[in-house]
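Human: I would love a firmer grasp of how sequence relates to backbone shape in proteins. Take your time, and here it is.
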Amino acid sequence: MRNLITSLKKCAVGVTLGAALGLGSTMPDAHAFNFPVFGPSYEGQLPRCEAGLPTITTQFWEKERKFWNSPLRITAYGNVHERAFRPRESDNIPRRYCTAEAMVSDGIVRTVHYSIVEDGGIASMGQGVEWCVVGLDRNWAYNPGCLTAQP
């Protein structure tokens, strides 16, 4: 009796698998379906360098306060200029590389290297800004001297 039940279970699994494979072979190719592709279009439409400064100011203050227990803030900017626009192959994510002088609340003027990245915001929405303040890259993310934040 036990062998009969086991045999019937194996047969049912075989029939189900066979039916699934047979049904799958009658389905059209995946290429026949027109699935929309979502994602960034990378048009190269980036704002000017000045557009990234408010983000840098806010993120710098948050990083210094939360991670380094520091009261430092950026209080002013000057000499803001573009260093490069899409300096690499044209199929890379568009970036505008910029440099500015920042007055920090400790009274020292420091250089800030940053890039504005198309669709580089949270979940690829909006512009993203990657930045480094020379002399205050405490976690060495862009070391040495913020070199890797430059084009």
